[in-house]
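*** Fold description ***
***
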Amino acid sequence: MHVLDPFLPIRVEMTSNTVKGAISAWLTGLGTMGNIFVFVKYMHVFAGREMKPIHLILIHLAVTNIMTLLSQGVPGTLAVLGVRNFLDDTGCKSVVYLSRIARGLSICTTGLLKVVQAITMSPRQSGWRKLQPSSAWHLLPLCLFFWILNSSIGMNLLLYIISISKNSSKGNMNYVPCFFQPENPKVKWTFLAAMVVRDIMFLATMGTASVHIIFLLHKHHQRALCLQISKSLHKAAPEVRASKSVLLLMLCFVFFYCTDFVFSLFVISFRENNSFLLYIWNFINLGYAIVSPFVLIHREGHLTECRRPLWNTRDTEKLCIPWPFP
């Protein structure tokens, strides 16, 4: 005769939380180390003679990713492992506020990277080239503006975020140590509208720059087909490889951004918080910060090789016959 163990559900839950916590800690640590490597690598290059605007952007992106992992990944891991009440009100406000800032900086920095790459690839006579920063230092005011913008958009969190320890009934099944207090609807929708406008603007900027790069790649391919001088033009030029690397990075961002949006709708649609959905949603929030440094490490030689336009117009126009198709 088998005796049912009354503590079996508790033991199963503890084992499950331990596994989830171990996975969360491993991925958070992996992403943090990857971003530190990228930061140190490009700081070394940036401090040298060959510093370029793209180096500053990649350094800024690495810092943003580290902020995301420390403000979301570490508290999430501790909560999953069962560590309760480890953040007071001040800690909750700081962590959630930094997380909101990091999210905004991520989309702003990725959009800036895309635009700078599109400008760098443009022909010399193009209007885009007039926007090219002459040095990396010219981007510092823009990065400062991103910090001011995103710090302002998230200021409402400082008023309405409190620690879960003030109301333990709110967070028994949540993998978060903090929660929102009810806030003024006007304040809520004002800041939400600002976030939506920011995201739409930078996503539209990414899309415009991506279309421009794809157009340049297509035009470069056509020119390469009509030139009959060297096989080197048929190979992937450094500028082509660099543009593909930035496109890959942007696709990673768009994938995690859209997936995060879909999961947020699922979480909001449940009247009672589902612990599994919250756990998966937490990883989706961290996905870009974890994956992007390894995309940069894998493609780093390509991302920083682009020093000139995609083609030299003066050289190719002399040798290229008209292409018969639009």
Summary: Residues 168-174, 228-235, 304-326 have pLDDT under 50 and may be disordered. The first strand starts at residue 161 and ends at 163. The chain has nine helices and two strands.
